[in-house]
Amino acid sequence: MTNSFSGKAWKYGDHIDTDVIIPARYLVSSDEAVLGKYCMEDIDKDFVRNMSRGDMIVAGENFGCGSSREHAPIAIKGAGCSCVIAASFARIFYRNAINVGLPIFECPEAAASIETGDEVAVDPIAGTIENRTKGMTFRVAPFAPFLQELISAGGLIPYARRRLEERRKGA
Amino acid sequence: MGRTLVSAIIAAHSSQKAMEGEICQVKVDFAFANDITGAPAAESFREMGADRVFDRERCALLPDHFTPNKDIASAEQTKKGKEFAREQGMLYWEVGRVGIEHAFLPEKGYILPGDIVLGADSHTCTGGALGALSTGVGSTDLAAVWALGETWLKVPPTVRVDFRGKRPGWVTGKDMILSLIGRISVQGARYMALEFGGEGIESLPMDDRFTIANMAVEAGAKAGVFVPDEKTLEYARSRAAREFTPRYPDSDAAYARRETFDLDTMGPVAAMPHSPDNVKPVRECGSPEIDQVFIGACTNGRFRDIETAAKLMEGKKVAPHVRCIVIPASYEVYNAAMDKGYLRIFTEAGAVVCTPTCGPCLGGHMGILAAGERCVSTSNRNFVGRMGSPKSELILASPLTAAASAVTGRLTDPRDVMSEDFFKNLEGK
């Protein structure tokens, strides 16, 4: 997670569940491009058509609640979103986003200030979210050290591969 | 300061101190995926460079969501999972010998007291009824567990929930958990564990405990755990597929918060559209007319659920304009219900009884709703579009309330259909 992102915000409310992020009827595929086409369809059928690559989803509390389907962060990536900013995330979605490499930022103040259409820039290294439309900057709490290690390893797949190699050498 | 149950379980599976808030590497006792999450997990497993699962008897794949496969795409997906399971020699059961994962695995003794269980399905928390730290993850997380036999878990703060008093016959596990979610909201236990206890639990059948643990995730919780008692241990001992060591909270455990409920005054409740925390007493919901009733799912497809619904429907008819779909959660439940004559009660009432599957609960198959249709369901989520059209409505309730509603054609408090004697007789065991 080294690059900074900027784009237009698409704002949603609290408790955006995984069923509206990607409805179960599409869970016969786990392909990013396929799932991306239906992202947010049941809450905003025009989202994918109206957004541009690099735009971000901004939401209130408990984003990604519900099903464990990893297809939800994959669909958001597949739609071309650069990241999700929310007041808080549901636990499984939080883990899944880190595991599949979807950048997420928990920042209640930024989430409250940003409205649909605002230009937003995020610098994950500096830990800042800037609402350029409103001229406001917010600090993001850093990830716990273990999660930083996981993220800098490139996600859970390379991390697990490294652990397996260490075990093979140790054996 | 003493440990809560979840903290005690994590400490027993980790070399770390497992203080609250600490991220611990923990050994996992059992790990499973289903026909939706299994194929992507198999793919991640291969990308990790893993060649075999950590233990064939502790890793499982269960086809239950779209199976018997609803279309070609789901058949292809299920096939990928099955091929992986066969290649690995891990636990796998075909349609006809399986059931909904969260009902089937405890029945077969694969989820046991004191365990850490990871499942690629959010309702893995159901296993908490057995005093296990059983929690849902995504496919990649699960793949890493299959490869490494371990995962990372943060030691969560715990909300202690006590049920006091004597439970009237019309109060089921579903009414108890919906009442809790209604009080604390869908994020009231986010990043936390729920620990259930109190004297009101002592007489509570295991099946109702599974229902309560099942919906812990609907309050945002990582796990919903019951402190093991004699009933838990008896259930586990009679079914255990391997050794287990139950864990217990310390008497001076530090809880983040306490919630207490009096069962004496509790009545049937329902979660109205479109959130599991939009909970009201059934009698205050305005008796909306309904098009469908679904009795089943990992929440309420167990024997006691089927039994209480059947007893209420005995000799009655489903309202002419209503579809009533009954799905036992496993073949153990299906066969027991058949032996008791309950399945016949449903079909004679005009309901349809289907093979064990998650189908309708997630809008998968066998019970999809059209725009404008309204369903009373014993499942666990009533999000927009959960059971079909985003313009449909879902009301969550207990099997008793669902059965009463099927008969009247409107959302109905079971006390408005049955006498007090009926509910007394329900508590036979």
Automatic annotation (TrEMBL), chain A:
<dbReference type="Pfam" id="PF00694">
    <property type="entry name" value="Aconitase_C"/>
</dbReference>
<comment type="function">
    <text>Catalyzes the isomerization between 2-isopropylmalate and 3-isopropylmalate, via the formation of 2-isopropylmaleate.</text>
</comment>
<comment type="subunit">
    <text>Heterodimer of LeuC and LeuD.</text>
</comment>
<comment type="similarity">
    <text>Belongs to the LeuD family. LeuD type 2 subfamily.</text>
</comment>
<keyword id="KW-0028">Amino-acid biosynthesis</keyword>
<keyword id="KW-0456">Lyase</keyword>
<dbReference type="InterPro" id="IPR033940">
    <property type="entry name" value="IPMI_Swivel"/>
</dbReference>
<keyword id="KW-0432">Leucine biosynthesis</keyword>
<comment type="pathway">
    <text>Amino-acid biosynthesis; L-leucine biosynthesis; L-leucine from 3-methyl-2-oxobutanoate: step 2/4.</text>
</comment>
<dbReference type="InterPro" id="IPR000573">
    <property type="entry name" value="AconitaseA/IPMdHydase_ssu_swvl"/>
</dbReference>
<dbReference type="InterPro" id="IPR011827">
    <property type="entry name" value="LeuD_type2/HacB/DmdB"/>
</dbReference>
<protein>
    <recommendedName>
        <fullName>3-isopropylmalate dehydratase small subunit</fullName>
        <ecNumber>4.2.1.33</ecNumber>
    </recommendedName>
</protein>
<dbReference type="InterPro" id="IPR050075">
    <property type="entry name" value="LeuD"/>
</dbReference>
<dbReference type="GO" id="GO:0009098">
    <property type="term" value="P:L-leucine biosynthetic process"/>
</dbReference>
<dbReference type="GO" id="GO:0003861">
    <property type="term" value="F:3-isopropylmalate dehydratase activity"/>
</dbReference>
<keyword id="KW-0100">Branched-chain amino acid biosynthesis</keyword>
<feature type="domain" description="Aconitase A/isopropylmalate dehydratase small subunit swivel">
    <location>
        <begin position="54"/>
        <end position="102"/>
    </location>
</feature>
<dbReference type="InterPro" id="IPR015928">
    <property type="entry name" value="Aconitase/3IPM_dehydase_swvl"/>
</dbReference>
UniProtKB/TrEMBL annotation, chain B:
<dbReference type="GO" id="GO:0046872">
    <property type="term" value="F:metal ion binding"/>
</dbReference>
<keyword id="KW-0028">Amino-acid biosynthesis</keyword>
<dbReference type="Pfam" id="PF00330">
    <property type="entry name" value="Aconitase"/>
</dbReference>
<comment type="subunit">
    <text>Heterodimer of LeuC and LeuD.</text>
</comment>
<dbReference type="GO" id="GO:0051539">
    <property type="term" value="F:4 iron, 4 sulfur cluster binding"/>
</dbReference>
<dbReference type="InterPro" id="IPR006251">
    <property type="entry name" value="Homoacnase/IPMdehydase_lsu"/>
</dbReference>
<feature type="binding site">
    <location>
        <position position="361"/>
    </location>
    <ligand>
        <name>[4Fe-4S] cluster</name>
    </ligand>
</feature>
<keyword id="KW-0479">Metal-binding</keyword>
<protein>
    <recommendedName>
        <fullName>3-isopropylmalate dehydratase large subunit</fullName>
        <ecNumber>4.2.1.33</ecNumber>
    </recommendedName>
</protein>
<dbReference type="InterPro" id="IPR015931">
    <property type="entry name" value="Acnase/IPM_dHydase_lsu_aba_1/3"/>
</dbReference>
<dbReference type="InterPro" id="IPR001030">
    <property type="entry name" value="Acoase/IPM_deHydtase_lsu_aba"/>
</dbReference>
<dbReference type="InterPro" id="IPR033941">
    <property type="entry name" value="IPMI_cat"/>
</dbReference>
<keyword id="KW-0456">Lyase</keyword>
<dbReference type="GO" id="GO:0003861">
    <property type="term" value="F:3-isopropylmalate dehydratase activity"/>
</dbReference>
<keyword id="KW-0408">Iron</keyword>
<feature type="binding site">
    <location>
        <position position="298"/>
    </location>
    <ligand>
        <name>[4Fe-4S] cluster</name>
    </ligand>
</feature>
<comment type="similarity">
    <text>Belongs to the aconitase/IPM isomerase family. LeuC type 2 subfamily.</text>
</comment>
<keyword id="KW-0004">4Fe-4S</keyword>
<comment type="pathway">
    <text>Amino-acid biosynthesis; L-leucine biosynthesis; L-leucine from 3-methyl-2-oxobutanoate: step 2/4.</text>
</comment>
<keyword id="KW-0100">Branched-chain amino acid biosynthesis</keyword>
<feature type="domain" description="Aconitase/3-isopropylmalate dehydratase large subunit alpha/beta/alpha">
    <location>
        <begin position="9"/>
        <end position="409"/>
    </location>
</feature>
<dbReference type="InterPro" id="IPR050067">
    <property type="entry name" value="IPM_dehydratase_rel_enz"/>
</dbReference>
